[in-house]
Write a structure and sequence with these properties.
heterodimer; A: alpha+beta; four-stranded mixed sheet; two-stranded antiparallel ribbon; 10 helices; 13% strand; globular; B: mainly alpha; two-stranded antiparallel sheet; 5% strand; binds iron/sulfur cluster
Chain lengths: 264, 132
């Protein structure tokens, strides 16, 4: 008899309570030693993104970048916000940097949308809580996900302080034009969680992430562990913010904040 | 006897589930499948060979795919496989299906004969030649 994924999940669900307890336990333990030691890995690679917010101006700029990601990864466009799936999206300054709110920041900052995606945290709580190791961190710092192993428990969603993950409440193919999908990349299925993978499939071919390519220089990709890398040069010469530093996850996505002429 | 009727109902339900594979296939005709390798790409090849022998692939393709999946997704080992000068990607969509572009004849026929429903196709997809 073939046992399909859904039947398996029903059985696995019964044992899920036990796993939940152990995951909660590791989350509590993990919090105790949040962000003391250096975030640079032994592998000598920590891939990172710098986003120069001043260089993304028009609605078309934002759309070009988010569409680049969602079209090549077959991310469905689900209008119901409760069911939506997003790998890269925008939100307000207050929601992006809730601990940086200051009533006197320039109006253009306050009104500007900010590009959000998975931060590929150096200390990712999503990895810590995933009971199946479906979510894992690669030696190069990319926090990626093996959808084959995801049992849809959504612990990672609860653990991620940035809302970077989406759950497939419905069959994503219903919201994809199957004649226009990227035939080289799979879709996902109902009952799994997904998120930005920092374009592991493109990096393997020596390409930059799709959003970076589409950003016309507003986003820069590189190795944070290399002091001579372009990302490090920008970080050492510009004022940048990371999201929610207090939670100690050490994001690898940096935002250049400031006026018109910035990184580049 | 306490709850005798509940126990008996429970037993009946249990038996119904446990013997499901036996009666669910009962009476269905079992025509021997003949997977076909008649596709444009394969027809153009001088030597029709896959990453392993046909015999081996018939028996073990699911293990090969499982191993590729772990190597590619988990270990980042995306190196290609070269056999007789031809390059194969370790990928269902971008490897296997490039040659075997006749999913219904090459994959589905055997799978339905054997009564297996691989959930690969829940995410991976393929448009058959002619439907493209
Ligand atoms: S942003 Fe969220 S999903 Fe991404 S690595 Fe950090 S905790 Fe995990
Ligand atoms: S939903 Fe999937 S990826 Fe997230 S914690 Fe559960 S198994 Fe891991
Ligand atoms: S890095 Fe790749 S997967 Fe992540 S948001 Fe950018 S395009 Fe999408």
């Amino acid at each position: 008899m073939s046992i399909d994924r859904r039947k398996f999940l029903k059985i696995a669900g019964l044992s899920g309570i036990g796993m939940g307890l152990s995951a909660a336990d590791s989350l509590i333990k993990g919090k105790a030693h949040a962000s003391e030691e250096s975030s640079l890995p032994e592998s000598g690679v920590r891939l990172a993104l710098v986003i120069d917010v001043g260089k993304i101006r028009t609605d078309e700029d934002y759309k070009r970048i988010t569409d680049a990601c969602h079209s090549i990864h077959n991310v469905p466009n689900i209008p119901n916000t409760k069911h939506e799936v997003k790998w890269i999206w925008t939100d307000t300054y207050e929601h992006t940097f809730p601990d940086q709110t200051n009533e006197f920041i320039p109006t253009e900052m306050k009104e500007k949308p900010f590009l959000l995606l998975c931060n590929h945290c150096a200390k990712p709580p999503c990895v810590r809580v995933c009971p199946t190791k479906a979510t894992f961190k690669r030696p190069d710092g990319i926090v990626t996900q093996d959808p084959h192993r995801c049992i849809g428990c959504r612990f990672c969603m609860a653990a991620c302080p940035y809302g970077s993950r989406s759950f497939n409440w419905v069959d994503p193919r219903k919201y994809l034009d199957m004649n226009k999908v990227n035939p080289d990349y799979p879709t996902r299925t109902m009952g799994v969680v997904e998120k930005c993978t920092l374009c592991v499939e493109r990096i393997a071919r020596g390409l930059e992430p799709a959003c970076v390519e589409a950003s016309n220089g507003a986003m820069v990709f590189g190795n944070l562990a290399d002091p001579n890398s372009k990302v490090r040069k920008i970080l050492s010469t510009h004022y940048t913010l990371i999201r929610k530093p207090a939670v100690g996850t050490q994001p690898s996505v940096f935002y250049v904040i400031g006026g018109g002429e910035n990184a580049g | 006897m306490y709850n005798g009727s509940k126990i008996i109902i429970g037993l009946i339900i249990f038996l119904a589930i446990a013997t499901f594979p036996l009666y669910s296939n009962f009476g269905k005709s079992a025509v021997m499948p003949k997977p076909s390798i008649d596709t444009p790409v394969i027809n153009q090849l001088d030597r029709k060979e896959c990453v392993e022998s046909a015999e081996y692939m018939k028996k073990e393709h699911m293990k090969v795919l499982d191993q590729w999946r772990d190597e590619v997704v988990r270990e980042g080992k995306r190196d290609v496989i070269t056999v007789g000068g031809r390059v194969f990607e370790k990928s269902l969509q971008n490897g296997c299906m490039q040659c075997h572009s006749n999913k219904s004849k090459f994959c589905d026929e055997c799978h339905s004969y054997a009564g297996v429903k691989p959930y690969c196709w829940d995410c991976h997809f393929f448009k058959e030649e002619g439907q493209r």
